[in-house]
Amino acid sequence: MPIELKTQDTLEYVFHPVPSRTLRFKVRASNDAHIMLSATANPEGSDPVLEVFIGGWSNQKSAIRRDRVTPDKANVETPDILSNDELRGFWINYLGGAIAVGKESEVEPFLTWTDPAPINVAFFGVSTGYGSSGEWVIDDENYDIDPLRNIVDTPDVPSASGEVAWVPSQGGVIPPNAVLGGFDNENLYVGRAQHEGGVIPGKVLSSHGVCYVAWGGAEHGKQDYEVLTGSNLQWVPSVEGQVPP
């Protein structure tokens, strides 16, 4: 069940354990929806924390702040991003110090920053202030894009023999023996997905819950995809379009 709560115009955080490394929520507020990430509930003033401000500065900007001090680590113009008339959805992903903030309907974040001294985030808090109160609906499920916390049924996963197979998956779940394709703030896995009538190879980014495929000069996030698996695979150098045997 989602967490439903209200915050007053006090800037006082209400804390809960983080459900996964991606926090998904909806908020109704005129401005200044604040989210704090911390290692403890009710952190003291000297404890390391991260704050995300959505719709600050009279609903004109959003920012990431470390340890309650300015200057902010990142900020971006986001005019009218919040509404006092409707719930609007957002997500915050925190993995290995890389923090990304995005809108519910978009896979690309609008605000990012990488913390050089990552916090072991275990709690989140929400608050409102500067003339705004808030209504929050927070997704407390821990399985949508956090495979490390969930056991999933994968009947087609190959055995330890190393047999190569494409395994259906979705929502960022990575099956056992997935083939590692690279690293960009987190592991990238070899995937493929249906797009425009074809099956296109791509990269599975677990924290975003999708497999990205390239088409028409842009990346397209696919929630349903297949992951390449096999324990005895290796990358082979090649040049000029040659395909190794």
UniProtKB/TrEMBL annotation:
<dbReference type="InterPro" id="IPR006616">
    <property type="entry name" value="DM9_repeat"/>
</dbReference>
<protein>
    <recommendedName>
        <fullName>Farnesoic acid O-methyl transferase domain-containing protein</fullName>
    </recommendedName>
</protein>
<dbReference type="Pfam" id="PF11901">
    <property type="entry name" value="DM9"/>
</dbReference>
<dbReference type="InterPro" id="IPR022041">
    <property type="entry name" value="Methyltransf_FA"/>
</dbReference>
<feature type="domain" description="Farnesoic acid O-methyl transferase">
    <location>
        <begin position="11"/>
        <end position="141"/>
    </location>
</feature>
<dbReference type="Pfam" id="PF12248">
    <property type="entry name" value="Methyltransf_FA"/>
</dbReference>
